Amino acid sequence: MYTITTTELYTLLRNHQLLVSSPIDDTLPEQTFHHLSYDSRDVQAQTLFFCKGFAFKESLLLDAITKGVTVYLSEISYDTKANEILVTDIREAMAVIAQAFYRHPQDQLIKIAMTGTKGKTTVAYFVHKILKDAYGPKVALFSSEETTTDGVHYHPSVLTTPEALVLYQQMAQAVENGLTHVVMEVSSQAYKTKRVFGLTFDLGIFLNISPDHISPIEHETFEEYFLCKQELLLHSKKMVMNHESDHFEVLENLCQTNHIPYLTYGGSTADYPVIATDDPRTFELKSATDPLAINGDYALTMFGHFNHENAAAALLATAWLGTPRNHMKESLSKCVIPGRMTLFDLPNGALAFVDFAHNYLSLLSMGQLAKEIRPHGKAIVMTGSAGGKALSRRKDMGLAITQIYDVAVLTSDDPNFENPNAIAEEIQQAIENPEVTVYREMNREQAIYLALSLAGPNDVVVLAGKGNEASMKIEGHDAPYDGDAIYAQKWIATQKEA
């Protein structure tokens, strides 16, 4: 169904000034490609192969060639029997070729994107729920948790923002299925690696910013990380922004300088102040002018002011796009997000949350929620940090524990090729409050049981990091893992039987 010829390929690359050199015409015969791939495990007849990534190995190309690949794109020349097309930027080439190959599906969809250090998935689900209730199953979702290209069937996602070849394939499937909207999370890595190169969103949402994903293989500095996040503003027709975000003045100036319309939510000086109520599940939007006609009271299935702000972002975004208002309150009141704030009542009266919180802002927010709903109890957190990436998180998690928690149980969380105890040591070294009681238990199941057993009747336990994930990344493999919620349920059941 989708094709691109050698001639079309050269024309496209020349027009985008991506072509380094092209073979003499009679050495590379005209060919029609029916498939695009950067994975040697995914090779079909007439596949155009892309050699992408800093860690790309020639053996992967050779494997693809043995499976039938005759033409490949690369920034580096390899001595193979296949024909090569050298490009100046393989990531950019992937994006522009994928757009052309799949017939520019992005132009046929209303595109809503969100970025931020925390809350992207929650806001994506809120927006998706509101739109789906308004328009039926015509809304695609590309989130870090789930993906749907037909609005009916959902499958687990691999990346927060898919690689360009996958992204445009998914958009094409959405168009084929008659969908009209796509809601997607856009990570900082998506801009750094040009997965969304050349993509303009109908509306962007900027939630917040704090240091995260700082490591040799992600972002070298916070400044680079923040600059990548700012790209969403420059590639959106209009923006919804959190007025209380750190560095908001930078974001506001960027919008004003580039004439990007924007609306804000948050504190009393925002366009839409988010007002807390006595019930931690409800909030009020109270704009002085209410240009979107969405003032009113709203209820969620989730606790916490940070989720109220996430819901406000979704309300502003969908209303500004012209979505009917009649189902918005009901949509939010029924929206459930996988792995986010799953609540358990412990037999002794304590509360426990299973949440995906895995960086400073999210861990701090969960601790603040614990203190808000149980001000006279202890806030207990069980957490760890992933191996081989986002190295700055370890210190930041220690800082969050220092600021808000009374007890911390440090454990394993996707250690991959690192020693989980060494990761826990880095977190503990950053806990500067001597009044915080710290335990270590590298068996995550046992760590959950320990954290729950430490809770008194007035306490709140936060089981943080993995949400509803059912595997543990260990030495490059996804080892089976029942899940934090399952172990919490098992512990509760044994306590009731005792």
What does this structure look like?
- By secondary structure, this protein is of the alpha/beta class.
- The strands form five sheets. An eleven-stranded mixed β-sheet has the order 11-10-9-12-8-13-14-15-16-17-18, with helices on both faces. A six-stranded mixed β-sheet has the order 19-20-24-21-22-23, with helices on both faces. Strands 2-7-6-5-4 form a five-stranded mixed β-sheet.
- The longest helix is centred in the first third of the chain and has 16 residues.
- The protein is globular and about 75 Å long.
**Which spans of ≥5 residues are poorly predicted at pLDDT below 50?**
none
Q: Kindly name the structural category.
A: alpha/beta
Shape: globular
Strand order of the largest sheet: 11-10-9-12-8-13-14-15-16-17-18
Q: Report mean pLDDT, rounded to a whole number.
A: 92
State the end-to-end CA separation. 62 Å
- Continuous helix count: 15
Number of strands: 26
Give a topology summary.
Layout: E1 4-5, H1 6-15, E2 19-21, E3 32-33, E4 35-37, E5 47-50, H2 58-66, E6 71-74, E7 83-87, H3 90-101, E8 110-115, H4 120-135, E9 139-142, E10 146-148, E11 155-156, H5 164-176, E12 181-185, H6 188-192, E13 203-206, H7 222-234, E14 239-242, H8 248-257, E15 262-266, E16 272-276, E17 282-285, E18 296-299, H9 305-320, H10 328-334, E19 342-345, E20 351-355, H11 360-373, E21 379-383, H12 392-404, E22 407-410, H13 420-429, E23 437-440, H14 444-453, E24 460-464, E25 471-474, E26 477-480, H15 484-497
Parallel strand pairs: 4-5, 5-6, 6-7, 8-12, 8-13, 9-12, 13-14, 14-15, 15-16, 20-24, 21-22, 21-24, 22-23
Antiparallel strand pairs: 1-3, 2-7, 9-10, 10-11, 16-17, 17-18, 19-20, 25-26
Helix pairs in contact: 3-5, 4-9, 11-12, 12-13, 14-15
